């Protein structure tokens, strides 16, 4: 949260500094791109966590199947 606030503040300062030279839109675009990158990183972490959970579930199911097969063979 602090990083986002600091990034937003930095983008605002840059936009204010560049407002007089006609580059204000560039600063605003950079701020939007920064937010988009942060959203993408958040989604990537969520996807990674989901895939890791699915992998753990699959490994557990395989272990359960092996244990059941061993129990039936004895």
| Uncertain residue ranges | none
**Number of helical regions:** 2
Give the biggest beta sheet: none
What percent of residues adopt helix (DSSP H or I)?
A: over 70%
Form type: rod-shaped
Overall number of strands:
0
Q: Give the radius of gyration.
A: 24 Å
Number of domains: 1
Q: Strand-and-helix sequence, N→C? A: HH
Gap from first CA to last CA: 57 Å
* Average predicted local confidence, pLDDT: 77
Supply the helix-strand structural class: mainly alpha
Please indicate the percent range of residues in DSSP E strands (runs of 2 or more): under 5%
Annotate the secondary structure layout.
Layout: H1 2-18, H2 24-73
Give a quick summary of the entry.
The protein has helices at 2-18, 24-73. It is mainly alpha-helical and 74 residues long.
Structure, explained:
Helix 1 packs antiparallel against helix 2 (24-73). The chain is built from two helices and no strands. With 74 residues, the protein is an all-alpha fold. Helix content is 91%, strand content 0%. It has one domain (2-73).
Features of this protein?
single chain; 74 residues; mainly alpha
């Amino acid at each position: 949260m602090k990083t986002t606030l600091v990034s937003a503040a930095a983008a605002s300062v840059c936009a204010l500094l560049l407002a007089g030279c006609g580059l204000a839109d560039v600063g605003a675009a950079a701020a939007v791109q920064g937010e988009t990158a942060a959203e993408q990183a958040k989604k990537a972490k969520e996807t990674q966590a989901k895939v890791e959970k699915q992998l753990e579930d699959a490994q557990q199911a395989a272990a359960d199947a092996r244990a059941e097969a061993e129990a039936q063979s004895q």
